[in-house]
Design goal:
This protein has helices spanning 2-15, 26-36, 42-50, 53-64, 78-85, 87-104, 109-137, 141-150, 153-162, 175-190, 195-202, 215-226, 248-265. The protein is mainly α and 267 residues long. The longest helix is centred in the middle third of the chain and has 29 residues, at 109-137.
Length: 267
C-alpha cells in the first residue's frame, strides 16, 4: 500500500505539471525552445550549442554518425555540424539528451540496467521508425526518428523517480500503463513535444496494427515490435512478431543505424 501511495503521489505531481527534471538539462531545454521558433537563426543556435560543452560534443558526434554522414567526410566544427544535421534533427538530439539525463542520475544498479536497456530499445525503435517511414508508411522520416527518440520519455522519468523510492516499480501489475500515460503526457509537454507526435505516442498503449501500416502511430508501433532490444516495460503483445512487413535488408539497415545513433547520442 505504501508503494501505491508513493506511485499515486508521483502521478498526481505529474498531472499538476510538477515534474522533477535534472538541472543539467536546462541548457538543452533552452536550445529546444529556440529551435521550436520558426524565426530561429543559425547564429543563435550555434551560440547556444557552443555554450554547453557536452551539447557541442554531441552535436559534432551526431553529424559524424553514419545515419547523417552519408559521404564519410568528417566534421570537426559546431557550425558545420549544425548545418549538416539540420534544425529538426538537432531538436531530436536535444530531446534525446533530456531523456538520457534521467537515466544518468540513477544510482540503483538494477534500475540503471533497465535504463540502459530502455535507451537501447529507444535507439533501435527510432532507427527502425525512420526506415519504416521512408520505405513503408509514407510518413516523414525525420518526424518518425524524433518520435522514436522521445516515445519512452515517461518510462525514463519513472525509472529516475523509482531510484528515489526503492521498490516503486516492483510488480507494477495493471496500473503501470494508464499511470505512465499521464506521466508521459506531462513530460512531453514540458519538453515542448509537438501535439501530433505526443498524441501518436500516447495512442500506442493498447493499440493494434492492421496491415498495411500507415501514419506515425503505426510507424512507431511497428518499430517498437520489431526492435532488436525490447523495452523493459514491454508486454507480450509488444514483443509479437510481425513477419513480412519489413524485409531483412531494411532490418539490417535499421540495426546499423541504431548502433550509430545510440553511440552518437550517448551522454
Amino acid at each position: 500500500m505504501e508503494k501505491l501511495r508513493d506511485y499515486a503521489q508521483i502521478v498526481e505531481q505529474a498531472a499538476r505539471g510538477e515534474l522533477v527534471f535534472p538541472t543539467s538539462v536546462n541548457a538543452v531545454l533552452r536550445l529546444q525552445l529556440a529551435l521550436a521558433d520558426p524565426d530561429c537563426e543559425l547564429d543563435d543556435v550555434v551560440r547556444k550549442v557552443l555554450g554547453e560543452p557536452l551539447l557541442a560534443a554531441r552535436t559534432v558526434a551526431l553529424a559524424n554518425a553514419a545515419v547523417f554522414n552519408r559521404t564519410g567526410v568528417p566534421i570537426t566544427g559546431v557550425r558545420a555540424a549544425v548545418q549538416r544535421v539540420g534544425f529538426r534533427n538537432l531538436y531530436s538530439m536535444a530531446a534525446a539528451m533530456v531523456v538520457r539525463q534521467f537515466g544518468a542520475r540513477i544510482r540503483d544498479d538494477g534500475l540503471r540496467r533497465q535504463a540502459d536497456q530502455l535507451w537501447r530499445h529507444t535507439a533501435h525503435t527510432a532507427a527502425l521508425a525512420c526506415v519504416i517511414a521512408r520505405k513503408l508508411t509514407s510518413t516523414d522520416p525525420d518526424t518518425a526518428l524524433f518520435a522514436g527518440i522521445v516515445h519512452e520519455s515517461g518510462g525514463f522519468y519513472l525509472l529516475s523517480r523509482a531510484d528515489e523510492t526503492p521498490g516503486l516499480l516492483d510488480q507494477p501489475g495493471e496500473w503501470l500503463g494508464a499511470a505512465q500515460e499521464i506521466i508521459s503526457r506531462e513530460v512531453m509537454k514540458k519538453m515542448a513535444i509537438p501535439e501530433p507526435v505526443s498524441q501518436a505516442i500516447v495512442s500506442l498503449r493498447g493499440a493494434t496494427l492492421t496491415p498495411p501500416p500507415i501514419g506515425l502511430r503505426d510507424t512507431l508501433l511497428l518499430a517498437k515490435r520489431l526492435a532488436q532490444v525490447p523495452s523493459p516495460f514491454a508486454t507480450d503483445e509488444e514483443g509479437a512478431a510481425l513477419d513480412g512487413l519489413i524485409d531483412d535488408d531494411d532490418r539490417r539497415e535499421a540495426a546499423a543505424e541504431a548502433i550509430s545513433l545510440s553511440s552518437a547520442l550517448l551522454v
